[in-house]
Each structure stands twice: as structure tokens, then as C-alpha cells.
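sorry to bug you again but im stuck and you know this stuff better than me. what follows is a protein written twice so to speak, once as letters and once as C-alpha cells for the fold. mainly i need to know what kind of three dimensional shape the backbone takes. anything you notice is useful, everything is just below:
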Amino acid sequence: MSAPLLLSCLWAIGASLIALGPSRFHWPAAWVLIALGVPLVGWVTLDHGPIVGLLVLAGGISVLRWPVIYLLRAARRRLL
């Protein structure tokens, strides 16, 4: 297994462990996960192509669904 895929799996395990913790840590941890996940998705895409990169991105979005929902709501409010 390549380094970017291994780190992506560790990222997903870390996100799952954070989800088990108290809710007061969820948002600060979400910002850390986003900051680590964005370059990681780029690295996976660079090494393995856009299909695998999109799969990793979809996995990250499924884990961090509430920040994405809030981002889409804010974008929709600005456009309308």
C-alpha cells in the first residue's frame, strides 16, 4: 500500500476515534481533519489518479458531513 493511501486510512481511523469522543472536541478536531485532509486528497490524486482521489474525497465528505452542509448553506445564502 502506498504512503498516501496508508495515511488516508489513518486519517479515517483518527476521524472515527474523534467521533467517539465528547462533542465539545468535534468542531476543533474537524478543522484539524480538514487541514490535514485537503493536502492528503491532493497527494492521493497525484499518485493514484482522479478516480481514487474522488473516492477518498467522498470518504472524507461522508465523515465531515456537517462542515460541508454548513459550507453549502452559506454558499447558497450568498448566491441567492
Summary: The chain has one domain: 3-79. The two ends are 45 Å apart (CA to CA). The helical segments are 3-20, 26-48, 50-63, 65-79. The longest helix spans residues 26-48.
